[in-house]
């Protein structure tokens, strides 16, 4: 009996092993926007705030369904506070209008916090610490249009460095923009005490939004981007979507049955 339990344990643990397992390390929120605005790995479901409505459209996103802003005055808010520790935000975004205004962040008015904003063909970010000291960077997306752009924002709490970069697969770039860091120094916090918002400027449609409590390596960003361009969402990476306990038990029993059959 003890041997059988050890075999079952080994089967269950073995299910989680994967060459891509590191992608799921530190993943705290993931909103595919395929059918709703639910966080499928955590408890940070998005809600529409600021007036207007944002609908889930079943097709037409980079990876199937997407949060379709369609000119709404609203934005999506997630009940998560970021900026006191390291984080990464990745998402596919599209902005038909190239409208100005804060697009992603936890603050929109020059106080402690961070936000990105669209200014014509430029995407900018601004962040400030508790004393009001701030930094700003910008990168050029080219001409906003129908292209889905993969954007990654990171904050390294050890150095106080906020970095924005993006990959535009359809316009003249076909490459990553140069990373644009702003450094405020070790120990800086850009936690405003407010929730995270996305889709705050222009149309700013959203697809496959993910948040980690660490800074992803560039190799990891590139792996997610390449998968997305091939039509594979973050959910296809092993370890991102954990099976329900009942499913795990059935898989383990199936593996155990196969092992016992071999022994006969």
What is this entry, summarized?
With 264 residues, the chain is of the alpha+beta class.
Please, could you describe this protein's structure?
The chain has three helices and 15 strands. With 264 residues, it is of the alpha+beta class. Helix 1 packs across helix 3 (245-263). Residues 1-21, 246-253 and 256-263 have low confidence and may be disordered. A six-stranded antiparallel sheet has the order 1-15-6-11-12-13, with no helix packed on it. A four-stranded antiparallel sheet has the order 7-8-9-10, with no helix packed on it.
Describe this protein with a few key phrases.
single chain; 264 residues; alpha+beta; 6-stranded antiparallel sheet; 4-stranded antiparallel sheet; 3 helices; 17% helix; globular; disordered N terminus; disordered C terminus
Q: Residue ranges: pLDDT <50 for 5 or more in a row?
A: 1-21, 246-253, 256-263
Share of β-strand residues:
25-35%
What share of residues is helical? 10-25%
Radius of gyration: 20 Å
How many helices does DSSP assign? Answer: 3
Compressed to H and E, one letter per element, the order equals HEEEEEEEEEEEEEEEHH
Mean pLDDT: 80
Distance between the termini: 16 Å
Structural class: alpha+beta
């Amino acid at each position: 009996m003890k041997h059988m339990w050890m075999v079952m344990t080994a089967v269950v643990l073995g299910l989680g092993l994967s060459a891509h397992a590191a992608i799921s390390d530190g993943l705290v929120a993931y909103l595919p926007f395929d059918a709703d605005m639910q966080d499928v790995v955590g408890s940070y479901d998005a809600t529409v705030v600021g007036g207007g409505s944002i609908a889930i459209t079943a097709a037409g996103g980079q990876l199937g369904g997407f949060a379709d802003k369609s000119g709404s005055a609203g934005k999506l808010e997630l009940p998560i506070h970021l900026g006191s520790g390291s984080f990464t935000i990745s998402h596919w975004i599209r902005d038909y209008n190239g409208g100005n205004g804060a697009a992603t962040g936890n603050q929109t008015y020059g106080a402690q916090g961070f936000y990105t904003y669209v200014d014509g063909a430029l995407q900018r970010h601004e962040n400030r610490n508790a004393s009001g000291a701030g930094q700003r960077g910008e990168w050029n997306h080219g001409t906003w249009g129908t292209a889905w752009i993969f954007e990654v924002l990171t904050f390294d709490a050890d150095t106080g460095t906020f970095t924005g970069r993006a990959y535009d697969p359809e316009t003249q770039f076909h490459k990553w923009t140069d990373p644009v860091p702003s450094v405020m120094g070790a120990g800086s916090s850009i936690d405003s005490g407010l929730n995270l918002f996305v889709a705050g400027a222009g149309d700013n449609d959203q697809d496959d939004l993910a948040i980690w409590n660490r800074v992803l390596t560039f190799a990891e960003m590139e792996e997610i981007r390449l998968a997305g361009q091939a039509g594979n969402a973050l959910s296809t990476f092993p370890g991102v979507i954990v099976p329900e306990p009942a499913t795990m038990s059935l898989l383990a029993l199936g593996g155990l049955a196969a092992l016992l059959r071999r022994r006969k």
